[in-house]
Amino acid sequence: MILLSAGGGADESNDDTLRIYLSLRPMTTNHSSLRLARPEPGSAGKFYIETYGCQMNQNDSEVVAAVLQADGFAHTASLDEADVVLINTCAIRDNAEQRIWGRLAEFRGLKRRRPGLLVGIIGCMAERLKDRLIEQEQTVDLVVGPDGYRSLPALVRQAAGGAKAVNVLLSREETYAEIAPVRLDRNGVTAFVSIMRGCNNMCSYCVVPYTRGVERSRDTETILAEVRDLFERGYREVTLLGQNVNSYRYGEVNFARLLARVAEVSPLLRVRFATSHPKDLSDELIETIAAWPNICRAIHLPAQSGSSRMLELMNRKYTREWYLGRIEAIRRRLPECSISTDLIAGFCTETPEDHAATLSLMREVGYEFAYMFKYSERPGTKAQRTMRDDVPEAVKTARLTEIINLQNELSLAANRRDVGRHFEVLIEGTSKRSADEVYGRTSQNKVVILPKMNYLPGDYVHVLITDCSSATLIGTPLC
Ligand code: 5AD
Ligand code: SF4
Known about the structure:
Layout: H1 15-24, H2 31-36, E1 45-51, H3 55-70, E2 73-75, E3 84-89, H4 94-113, E4 118-123, H5 124-128, H6 130-136, E5 142-144, H7 152-160, E6 165-167, E7 190-194, E8 196-197, H8 208-212, E9 216-217, H9 220-232, E10 237-241, E11 249-250, E12 253-254, H10 255-263, E13 270-274, H11 283-291, E14 298-300, H12 308-313, H13 320-333, E15 338-345, H14 352-365, E16 369-374, H15 382-386, H16 393-418, E17 422-430, E18 437-441, E19 447-451, E20 460-468, E21 473-477
Parallel strand pairs: 1-2, 1-3, 3-4, 4-5, 5-6, 7-10, 10-13, 14-15, 15-16, 19-21
Antiparallel strand pairs: 8-9, 11-12, 17-18, 17-20, 18-19, 20-21
């Protein structure tokens, strides 16, 4: 059962909600004094949160946790203990959504056994499918889009009264700027920091501008305050996040300047960022990375396709040649930088020649790593409205398999080149393979396994790479 918080949500002026409040909360203290007090942790009930999708979503779950905790809810990692279950969803491909429908079906059974349990769908799929979720899904009590998280405590109270609670309004301003995310399930060493939200790029295949709204950048000072606080609490790596991180601009501060200011917090703090759009990868940004040894030598630069014809149809605003020019600029100035990418197989009208161009781009760049996908048509996007999803599923699968096989070769070749080299590794935790080993990452974002010795998470260790697979490096400490 949900015990309603005394935190003073806006909805308490609403008659229905007040009634719920009175009926659920054991009233042992004076009502008005409770409203002024900060709610006791857990006094409002426990929430459990499951996160799907990108790093932005993981960080959003941490913002959600902060909002709920400030209102007296306590986080639980156990579904059995939860009063409220939140599913932070992804809408980017159909299979992401299918997984969530499957999960909802499981919650249907759970709700039958625990009728007081509240189930909330939050995030991108909530934004995209609000009507269907509200009208057809008996299991769902709450539907909240990516810009509605501040209203979650109030909405949980509303749902506890039996009324479905919805907030899918997109905002032009919301950046959750001053909210300090509660780091869920993190290792105490690496943390995500959102610096902007939304996207204005309108790639023709992509649903993100519709689910996350227009681009807006977060106040620079709040970002720096969050980073300093993380560093003081022992964190040694931050990843600055945004759908299109390098188009950040807050007043006079562009992304390159922000990056330098974050790097300035401490030479012991590593700085990463994701995801960059090639069109915004400026020379100034490359120079800034070169100037700061603690800005990681790893750039994720989604190409999507190696065919200029496909890139035009995708509305990516660059050609293959222009993209390769950016890669050359990185290689020239940052020879030790790893480059990774996202690729889509089987976009509308893709021919065998277009596909071959993607494979040849992969070889030419020699990506260290890639996220690879089959094109999935998304309702409402430009591609869905104006193009035909005409590459047969079997062809998409075959092309994706070729792309994955090639990437495995390239990753293995890149890792083999690292054998015999030295790297500084930031230790993140104990290896899953063995309690006698720890794992960490190089500046290039490669995972290294090494003997545990006395290393603790947060330590920097100089390591000689002795062996590798396509996914991992094996190392030994240099004394
Ligand atoms: N189908 C397949 N992949 C997609 N991506 C985005 N939209 C789609 C889609 N409709 C991929 C892109 C993007 C990554 C986050 O997801 O490669 O960079
Ligand atoms: Fe998925 Fe995109 Fe939403 Fe992230 S922003 S959760 S990738 S749809």
